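Re: that chain you flagged

S.,

Sorry for the slow reply, it's been a week of failed gels. I finally had a moment to sit down with the sequence you sent. For the record, here it is as I used it:
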Amino acid sequence: QVQLVESGGGLVQAGGSLRLSCAASGTVPSINTMGWYRQAPGKQRDLVAAVTNGNSTNYADSVKGRFTISRDNAKNTVYLQMNNLKPGDTPVYYCNIRYGWETYWGQGTQVTVSS
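Prediction finished late last night. Pasting the structure tokens below so you have them in one place:
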């Protein structure tokens, strides 16, 4: 079992920045992919960015050039630096870890971008 605890969400004006953090605890395999997804009410949960334990990254087109994902393998923690935030970046952000057939989710953290 893996537990994910997110932090760093909040309210920010358009053009501002936020940094999300997600710490994994429990039995965490060294080979895994950690990422961030977001979900607006009534919409599907979509990938924002993901990073492997080897630091290969993948971003949604809508956040490329604005968001940066990184991780600290020693701390089993993944970060999402979000710059130049837009009102469309508003929904709940969920941390995710995947390894083999296993997938775990965090409880979600709300990001609100005011125009």
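What I noticed first: Residues 50 and 72 are 13 Å apart (CA to CA).

Talk soon,
D.
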